[in-house]
Each structure stands twice: as C-alpha cells, then as structure tokens.
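step 4 of 6: structure.
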Amino acid sequence: MILAVAVPIVAAANSPLLAWREPVYIVAGFAGVISMCLLLMQPLLAARLLPGLSPVTSRHWHRWCGLALVAAILIHVGGLWVTSPPDVIDALLFVSPTPFSAWGVTAMWAAFGVALLGFARQRLGLRFRVWRLGHTSLAAVTIVGSVVHALLIEGTMEIMTKWALCALVVLASVRALAKLRVWDVRRRA
Amino acid sequence: MTGVTFSRRSLIVTGASALATGATGLMVPARAKGVAPTPSMRGGSNNYRPGAPIVDRIGGGGFWMTGTVRRAGDGAPLPGQRIQIWAHTTEGHERDPQSHGATLTDANGEFRLEMPQIVPAFGQPHGHLAYDSGEFETVFLRPIMASSKDKTLAAHFVLQPA
C-alpha cells in the first residue's frame, strides 16, 4: 500500500520537467498526484479492505482522507490558476483545447458533491443505502474522470507508475463496490 | 410535362437520399474561394503579450518554430508578415516576457524562428503563434508537438483581409 503510493510520487519527483517549472506549478502538479493516491485510499477505507483497521478507524480515516482530497484538489486547481490563469479559466468553462481538462473538472465537481453528501448525510435524512448509492455513484464519476484525466496528461508523472496507480485505483474501487453491493438498496430483512 | 410524378414512396426515397448525400458532405455548394482562412485555435491566445519584439532568436535557441503565411482565396504567399511566437520552454514560462518573440515571413511567405526547447506544460508540449498586425484578421494558433522530444514545430496561417 505504502509502496503503491510512494513509488509514483518518487518517480514524479524525479521528472526532468520539474527543472523548468516554478514552485507554485510544481506544488499544483504534486497536489494532483497526491489526489490520485488519496483516491486509492478512499474505496479501500470505505469498504474496510485495509487489514488491521477497525471499522470505526476505517470510517474516521475515510473522512480525513476525503477532506484531504478536497484540499488537494483546491491546491491543484488554485496552483494551476496562479501559474496560467487563462488555461484554468478555459478548463473550468469547458472550452479548453486539451481533452483531459473536461475530465478533470467533471471529476472535481463530482468530488465536491461526494464530500457535501458526506457532510450532510445525517441532515439529509435519507435511508442509509439510498444515501450510499448517491455517494458512491458520484465517487465513481470522480474516479473515472480522474483516471482518464491523469492518463491523457503528459506531465511529471512517470508513465509506468502512473498507469499502475490508475489501475490500482480502478481495481480498488470495483472491489469496494462489489464487496459493499452498493447497487442493492433494498431494506435489510 | 410528362413522367415526373412522385408517389409517396419515391418522394420519401428521393428526399432521404438527398438528405443523406448532403449529410455526407458530397453535395457542396460552389465555393468562390479556393483556400479557406485558418480559424483561431482554442486556447491559442492564452498568455499572449501583444507587441513581442522582432528578434533573431528567442533565448539560447536549439528548437525551430517554422511555418507559412498565405492569403485566403488564391493562396498566394504573404511576405513581410509579422508572426509572434511564445511557449513554455526550458528557459521560461509562457507568461515570461523572455519567452516571447516575433519574426517576419520571407519572400515565399515562410518563417523560421529559433527558440529554446519547448517542454510539456499544462499537459501537452505545445506552442503559441499569433498574427495580430491589423492588415488581415487576427489569428491565434496553438499547435501540439507529436512528441515532446521533437526539435521543431510547424504552424501554417491562411489569412483573410480585415
């Protein structure tokens, strides 16, 4: 687990592109890499797939990783905005020339939606499984959007470790969805 | 007037095939112009700094931006046209003044400007070019390198009178 997250980060830290980037651009890029690592944690924690963590601890970590993910996305987009405002405005308005921008922005809004649903779970008064279906459906949009976003980008992430991390994120998500059977919204008998 | 009678079926068939032909683009209205003007590309004008100076070379060089400038319609080469160029390179960001420069087309409407190596920025290795001198409509281009290891990048303008 630590290896799966550390290797892509170290590989990105060795990217030759870093030499030609300002600090704020580098921070923005790494916030994106860290976001992808957090996206690997989230399904594993949600489905209690990590060994040695009690269900309560898993839930707590899931919350904190979710908050960290929102913060990382904000740093990612904010840092890119400082680096090149017109490119980020194009992306947010879905008129960017780069195909990966729309995937990333869609994933971002879905992630914010997931977090809001997380915050408002008790206030919404939805039945747990119905709420969970909404939370995980939006999370799936975030994951698919983020993976496509990352794979289409030529950036600091090294190609092999990027594909491996993305594959792990998808695998973990599918495993979590299958274990929790999120599509089953019937009341428990 | 004999023979031109449309049954419901033949009318539908004829109409549908005409629509289908039109949709495939095989039926085009006669065009007066030969060479169509180049439209500006999405994001082409990002980080544009008007009035980049004409230079022999941007920074230390090592990479070549090339291209042609022609007139819409007859496709005639346009000499003496000022093309402004900028990119994220090994020597600076797109927004940095030292990343910007301009050059003029030669008698054949061709331009070549040496600049530092373009490196991937915002996910793609790309350059920016502008024609913004007033005589013709302004055009901003944003060509993408097939590989970030390329040592050259080309962009072509077809301009229409303003």
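step 5 of 6: annotate
 - Chain A touches chain B through 21 residues (CB under 8 Å).
 - The CA atoms of residues 109 and 142 of chain A lie 8 Å apart.
step 6 of 6: archive
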